[in-house]
């Protein structure tokens, strides 16, 4: 029975993940269009029905599947094929540490709404995001194309630089939170400050949040930080890819957006917490309570988690379509000269404040 | 330090501007998608094949030859348009008109639309108002070059 539950959880989480990824491609097109006062994808339809082009992702997928699977003669065929799967796998696997909700009680059984409840869940996600660099480096290297190699070298330099800032920005947070277990972190954020402000990470660690946001944006390697891809100068590490393999790289990008949103939500915005919602219903700060059945509470939690994630996905796409890209030296300056010193300041400041409050 | 803080604020302002565009336009798109008519459109795009932009009154589109009241072409084969045409795409062969008042009539009047640059000089030159560029046809594409050589049948519309 436990095995069945785990399988169901894995399938449900993957379906959620991939559907959201598909619809992020739609959101990307639509949002970029609306920002520029254009219309965006609106032609894909089933019969007469073409509501805002919502079938566009499926049309894209069908197009991509029927493209020729092309491997250049001069590339290393095995590694060239392996690279997109590696980068896809290491992002897809992070979903198993993301807490979607607290727990669901059905028939005397308590199901944790997280696939794998690890003690070091946070480290697991960070580690998998770091290992994802392998796909990027391999793709450029195995292509035997100078521009692809240039892209992957840049990508490696960028991701490793920002990995430092990403890790350091979270140390302040880890000092505040009691555990690295993501469920514990989220449960901790369910308490209230001064009796009425939700005790979300962004209030405890505002500087850490800003640093993490920048470093995470760099980690997704999209436009303000798109040095590995660099559409306008080098085509980037996937220059020699086409069809579904290129599609895997693109999906990896969008899945990274979702994972980063999930991390931002879980660490800084209370994960599945709804303000003032406890396990038995709402406890209003102005007194009084509103009891809710267990199923409704879980539904609220799942909804809150999804709304927060979609907001951060939207925000990242907004950032991608608003700001111009960095030059390579500016990128390195921002990482090494601004974000890392700031995150060190954040660690010291957090330590001092915690020492005083103790 | 203060300068870069100023940059940071401007960066945030830029994000708010694009976010405003997104929400305002999305509002109109959703209203129209569920069938509520709005005066604003949410996008500046004109969805070309279905919706057409109104052409300007002086827009130079495909040529036509005008007719007299009795249905004959107004053209008197004076060759002014042939002379003025910078692309040399007009060919006129004259013949005698049965009406002695008019003297000449085009036996053949051919415009090679594939060479025409739509400068409108022929219209300016014509003393009889016999050729005009006011058909409003702007898609004169064809698959064979021969089909773009318009004779009198096609031009007298």
Q: What is shown here, in short?
A:
The complex is a heterodimer of chains A (358) and B (157). By secondary structure, chain A is mainly alpha-helical.
Describe the 3D structure.
The complex is a heterodimer of chains A (358) and B (157). By secondary structure, chain A is mainly alpha-helical. Chain A has one domain. In chain A, the strands form three sheets. Chain A has a three-stranded antiparallel sheet, with no helix packed on it. Chain A is globular, with a radius of gyration of 22 Å. The model of chain A has no long low-confidence stretch (mean pLDDT 88). Chain B has two domains: 45 residues, no CATH class; 92 residues, 2-Layer Sandwich (Alpha-Beta Plaits). Helices cover 29% and strands 14% of the residues of chain B. In chain B, the strands form two sheets. Chain B has a three-stranded antiparallel sheet. Chain B has a two-stranded antiparallel ribbon with strand order 1-4. Classes of the chains: A mainly alpha (358), B alpha+beta (157). Chains A and B meet through helix 1 and helix 11 of A and helix 1 of B.
């Amino acid at each position: 029975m436990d095995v069945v539950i785990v399988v169901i959880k894995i399938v449900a989480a993957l379906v959620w993940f991939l559907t959201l990824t598909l619809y992020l491609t739609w959101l990307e097109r639509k949002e970029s269009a609306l920002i520029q006062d254009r219309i965006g994808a609106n032609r894909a339809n089933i019969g007469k029905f073409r509501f805002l082009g919502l079938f566009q992702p499926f049309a894209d997928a069908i197009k991509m599947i029927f493209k020729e699977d092309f491997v250049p003669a001069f590339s290393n065929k095995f590694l060239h094929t392996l690279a997109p799967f590696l980068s896809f796998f290491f992002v897809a696997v992070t979903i198993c540490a993301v807490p979607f909700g607290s727990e669901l009680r059905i028939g005397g059984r308590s199901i944790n709404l997280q696939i794998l409840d690890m003690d070091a869940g946070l480290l697991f996600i960070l580690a998998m995001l770091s290992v994802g660099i392998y796909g990027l480096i391999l793709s450029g290297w195995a292509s035997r194309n100078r521009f692809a190699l240039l892209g992957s070298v840049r990508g490696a330099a960028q991701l490793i630089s920002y990995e430092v800032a990403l890790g350091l920005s979270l140390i302040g947070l880890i000092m505040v939170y009691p555990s690295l277990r993501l469920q514990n972190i989220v449960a901790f954020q369910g308490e209230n400050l001064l009796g009425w402000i939700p005790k979300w990470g962004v209030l405890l660690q505002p500087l850490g949040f800003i640093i993490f946001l920048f470093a995470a944006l760099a980690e997704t390697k999209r436009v303000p930080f798109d040095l590995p891809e660099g559409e306008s100068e080098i085509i980037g590490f996937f220059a020699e890819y086409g069809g579904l393999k290129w599609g895997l790289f693109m999906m990896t990008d969008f899945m990274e957006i979702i994972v980063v949103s999930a991390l931002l939500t879980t660490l800084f915005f209370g994960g599945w917490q709804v303000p003032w919602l406890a396990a038995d219903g709402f406890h209003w700060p102005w007194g009084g309570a509103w009891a809710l059945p267990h199923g409704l509470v879980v539904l609220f939690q799942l909804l809150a988690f999804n709304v927060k994630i979609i907001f951060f996905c939207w925000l990242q796409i907004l950032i991608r379509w608003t700001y111009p890209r960095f030059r390579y030296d500016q990128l390195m300056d921002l990482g090494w000269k601004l974000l890392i010193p700031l995150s060190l300041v954040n660690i010291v400041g957090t330590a001092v404040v915690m020492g005083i409050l103790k | 330090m203060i300068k870069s803080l100023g940059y940071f604020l401007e960066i945030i302002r830029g994000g708010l501007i694009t976010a405003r565009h997104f929400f305002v336009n999305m509002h109109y798109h959703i209203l129209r998608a569920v069938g509520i008519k709005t005066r604003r459109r949410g996008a500046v795009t004109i969805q070309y094949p279905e919706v057409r932009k109104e052409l300007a009154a002086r827009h130079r589109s495909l040529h036509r030859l005008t007719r007299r009241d009795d249905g004959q072409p107004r053209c008197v084969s004076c060759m002014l348009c042939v002379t003025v045409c910078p692309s040399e795409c007009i060919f006129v062969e004259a013949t005698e008109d049965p009406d002695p008042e008019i003297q000449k009539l085009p036996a053949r009047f051919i415009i090679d639309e594939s060479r025409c640059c739509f400068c409108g000089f022929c219209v300016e030159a014509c003393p009889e108002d016999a050729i005009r560029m006011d058909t409003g046809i702007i898609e004169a594409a064809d698959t064979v070059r021969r089909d773009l050589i318009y004779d009198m049948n096609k031009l007298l519309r």
